[in-house]
Design goal:
Blueprint (H helix, E strand, L loop, with lengths): L6 H20 L6 E2 L10 E2 L11 E2 L2 E5 L30 H29 L2 H14 L1 H10 L3 H16 L8 H4 L10 H7 L7 E4 L3 E4 H13 L8 H16 L5 H7 L4 H18 L1
Antiparallel strand pairs: 1-2, 3-4, 5-6
Helix pairs in contact: 1-8, 1-9, 2-9, 4-5, 7-8, 7-11
Length: 290
């Protein structure tokens, strides 16, 4: 039984793990131009206007990885992107809108006052190849989430690919720092999680909710992300201080590739809250339908 005085560290680690998932969902369409017919009445959104200029634009044929940067060792980098189905639809109910708008403002301040400055500083002093290696390694660590989610959706091929990727990248790829499974065998990761799994079981979104620190979600995705947390090996690392440090590193490293995406979304509408809410819902719908 863990000492009570360390329990708060484990809770904070859980927040960091969940933050990675929500961050990927909320900012997963990097490098695209999103029409706002169903998002707002403002102009189009140049998603890559402030994107990391050291990286190439995302490939239309591969929404989960960016194009080859010419680095032979640290080659493929996950960006978690996916195109968004913008067909008109009824929005997910938002009965908690006053609370959600308050949390949106809180998270906005946390981003600009905390996460963004840290990510910018980290990016300034850390070489691209190193950041890519770190990102690949954490992607490899998160394999159980994608593997179990694929199995539960009866995507046997996807589960097999994830298992093969893990074995190859953990051994030949030096703990996942390199991604030879993709580079030489074309085995790309399947972007799956338990929230998507619940969606494939025809479980509705429930209502929309914005969590402090974590960002946009729905009742269904919140349940799914909680399950993802327990499937993430980082949650079980001991001592808790090490696990917390790894989770923080993962968060900052991942954010260093997405500086500017949130700003682009926010500046493209008179009501950023509504735009991001609708963008999140459409993006999750697209992932579930794939």
């Amino acid at each position: 039984m863990k000492p009570p005085k360390k329990s708060s560290l484990k809770y904070l680690l859980a927040v960091l793990i969940l933050l990675q998932g929500f961050w990927g969902c909320a900012h997963g369409n990097t490098g695209k131009v999103v029409s706002d017919k169903t998002l707002s009445n403002g102009p189009q959104i140049p998603m890559d206007s402030q994107k990391d200029e050291s990286l190439p634009p995302a490939s239309d044929d591969d929404p989960f990885f960016e194009e080859d940067t010419g680095d032979d060792f640290f080659d493929d980098e996950p960006i978690g992107g996916a195109s968004v189905d913008l067909a008109p639809e009824i929005l997910v109910p938002d009965p908690l809108e006053p609370f959600n708008r308050l949390m949106f403002k809180v998270n906005d301040k946390l981003y600009f006052w905390g996460l963004k400055p840290l990510a910018q500083g980290y990016k300034a002093v850390t070489p691209l190849f190193f950041r890519k290696g770190v990102k690949n390694a954490f992607l490899n660590i998160g394999m159980p989430i994608r593997f179990v989610s694929s199995l539960l959706q009866l995507k046997i091929k996807g589960a097999g690919v994830e298992l093969s990727r893990f074995i190859i990248n953990t051994t030949v790829g030096i703990g996942g720092v390199w991604d030879p499974a993709d580079k030489y065998l074309g085995l790309k990761p399947y972007k799956e999680d338990l929230g998507q799994t619940l969606g494939t079981y025809k479980i509705g979104n429930g209502f929309y909710i914005v969590w402090p620190f974590l960002g946009p979600s729905t009742l269904r995705d919140s349940v799914g992300m909680t399950g993802d947390m327990f499937l993430n090996p980082l949650y079980y690392v001991e001592p808790n201080e090490l696990a917390l440090g790894l989770g923080f590193w993962d968060t900052i490293n991942g954010a260093s590739f997405r500086i500017g995406d949130y700003e682009s979304l926010k500046s493209a509408s008179m009501d950023p809250y509504m735009m991001i809410r609708d963008f999140y819902i459409q993006h999750r719908k697209k992932l579930i339908s794939e």
